[in-house]
Structure formats: structure tokens, C-alpha cells
UniProtKB/TrEMBL annotation:
MF annotations from Gene Ontology: ABC-type phosphonate transporter activity
Family: Belongs to the binding-protein-dependent transport system permease family.
Keywords: Cell membrane, Membrane, Transmembrane, Transmembrane helix, Transport
Taxonomic superkingdom: Bacteria
One Pfam family of this chain: BPD_transp_1
Protein name, UniProt field: Phosphonate transport system permease protein
Claim: Heme is one of the keywords in the record: no
NCBIfam families: PhnE
PROSITE patterns: ABC_TM1 (PS50928)
Subcellular location: Cell membrane
Membrane topology: Multi-pass membrane protein
InterPro entries to which the protein is assigned, alphabetical: MetI-like, MetI-like_sf, PhnE/PtxC
One GO CC term, this protein: plasma membrane
Length: 292
């Protein structure tokens, strides 16, 4: 027998029992789907581990005791030469400045390109509405290709140095920031734009006076966050011959034993720099977004 409840007007409807049963059925189905996904995840992890174990030159389990062998060797040598570490840190400051310059120039160039792409790909603001999808796909393409892949291609065209790194990071930044900038622009109030349209303003004037002042705080916040990411990216690109402190780290590691104190000095310099940039950008973003 099914319980029937009468509403205030005498209408028949599902009673509390039916509602509770429906809820329990929903919970059971969610648990079943969650269990299936968990089993699939574990099966994929196990199969991937077995495949990697079969193709690896050495056994993964057998090599676990040696995971900390290299770090301990590096730290022990650096500790034995700890008196030389401050001098090595100071010696690599010029390379760090080059790395920061690469990140700053690429963030600026990529941010400016992202502003244009964001406004051209935002519905209701685009200069050419029919090409909104084209500009969105351009940002997807820039964002999809990793910086190191672009840099490796540019090395063959332009040679080594900071220029390929700046171009590679700027292209990826334009795609990543363009997506974020577009989402901010979509939430802008269109009343200033409508007012500027009524007095005959051009598209550039409407964007400059009606949209950018509203979006600028969030745009700058995202740009500062991206600058932190680009500092790390420019250091990584040094391993493929793009200059900066990453190149110095690569050379020190290639020398191996006897230069591990230099490796530790470079890591310490990078760590302190990234922490300082992170703290400064956090304070700047808080002032921009919250006004305090």
C-alpha cells in the first residue's frame, strides 16, 4: 500500500514516505556511481603502474630506498661548503635579474595582447561579433601549447637566448590571461557603454572609457598572478638554452659532484625570490580588488 498525503486544498500527492524513499534512492545511486568511478580509477592506476614497471630499466619498488640518495648527497656537500653559499648566491643575482626581466617583458606583452583578444572575444563588446569564435579559438590555441614546446621551435628559428623565451611565454600568457580577462569583461556594466554609444563614441573609446575602468582592478590582479607563474616558467626554459638562472642551474647540475653547493645556492635564490614576489603580489592584488 502506498501512503497518500492530502494537501491543504485536498489534493492528493506523494506523502513523506515516498519523498524519503526517493531521497534514499538518489543517495544509493550516487554511491553506486562513486564506487564505479573509484574502481575504474584504481584499475587505471594499477594498469599504468604495471606498464611503467615493465618498461622501466629498473624496478620501481627496488629503487624506492634510493629516492633520497641524490638529495642527501647534494645537501651534504652544500653543508660542507656552506661558507661559500652566500657568495654563490650573490654571483647568480645577474642571472636572476635576467630571468625576472624575461618574465616581466613577456607578462607585459602577453597581458596587452590578452586585453585586445578578451575585448574582441566577449559577447556584446566585440568589434566584429561574427569573429568572436575565431578570437576565442586563437586564445585556446595559445593556451593549449606549453611554453617549452614553443621555445624549442623558436630556438631552431632564432637561436638561443632570451628572445625565444619572451615570445613563448608571451604567447601562452596571452591565451591564459585572455580567457580570464574575457570572463571579467562579460560581467562589466554595459550602461556606460550604452551612454557612450548614444553620443557617437567609437568602439575604442567605448572600451577605453566604459569597460576597461571597470575591469582594470581584476585584470591587474590576474596579471600579477601570471607574473609569478612566468618567473617560474622563465627559470624552467633556461634548461633548454634560453638563458637566465635556469641555464646556470642546468650547467651546475651537469657538472655533478663538486658543484652541488652552487645548485643549492641557485635553489635558495629562486625560492627566496618567488616567496618575495608572491608576498608582494598578494598585497598588491588585495589593494586592487578590495581597496585596502
Amino acid at each position: 500500500m502506498v501512503d497518500i498525503a492530502f494537501g491543504p486544498q485536498g489534493d492528493k500527492g506523494p506523502g513523506p514516505t515516498n519523498g524519503r524513499d526517493a531521497y534514499l534512492d538518489l543517495v544509493r545511486r550516487r554511491r553506486m556511481y562513486g564506487g564505479i568511478l573509484l574502481v575504474l580509477f584504481v584499475a587505471l592506476m594499477a594498469s599504468g603502474f604495471r606498464l611503467a614497471e615493465s618498461r622501466n630499466a629498473g624496478g620501481f619498488i627496488d629503487g624506492l630506498p634510493q629516492v633520497f640518495a641524490f638529495p642527501s648527497e647534494v645537501i651534504s656537500e652544500a653543508w660542507a661548503k656552506r661558507a661559500e653559499v652566500p657568495g654563490l648566491i650573490w654571483a647568480h643575482v645577474p642571472s636572476l635579474i635576467e630571468t625576472i626581466n624575461i618574465a616581466a617583458v613577456s607578462t607585459l606583452a602577453g597581458g596587452l595582447a590578452a586585453m585586445v583578444l578578451a575585448l574582441l572575444s566577449t559577447r556584446g563588446l566585440s568589434r566584429w561579433p561574427r569573429f568572436t569564435g575565431v578570437f576565442r579559438r586563437m586564445m585556446d590555441a595559445f593556451r593549449a601549447v606549453p611554453e617549452i614546446v614553443i621555445a624549442l621551435v623558436l630556438i631552431y628559428l632564432l637561436g638561443g637566448g632570451p628572445v625565444p623565451a619572451v615570445i613563448a611565454i608571451a604567447l601562452h600568457t596571452s591565451g591564459a590571461l585572455g580567457k580570464l580577462f574575457s570572463e571579467v569583461a562579460e560581467n562589466a556594466d554595459l550602461k556606460p557603454v550604452e551612454g557612450l554609444t548614444s553620443v557617437g563614441a567609437t568602439w575604442g573609446q567605448k572600451m577605453w572609457l566604459g569597460v576597461i575602468p571597470q575591469a582594470a582592478p581584476n585584470w591587474l590582479s590576474y596579471a600579477l598572478l601570471r607574473f609569478e607563474i612566468n618567473v617560474r616558467a622563465s627559470a624552467i626554459l633556461g634548461f633548454v638554452g634560453e638563458g637566465g638562472i635556469g641555464h646556470d642551474l642546468k650547467l651546475a647540475m651537469q657538472w655533478g659532484q663538486g658543484r652541488y653547493d652552487e645548485v643549492v645556492a641557485i635553489f635558495l635564490l629562486l625560492f627566496l625570490t618567488i616567496v618575495a614576489i608572491d608576498r608582494l603580489s598578494d598585497r598588491a592584488r588585495e589593494k586592487l580588488v578590495r581597496g585596502r
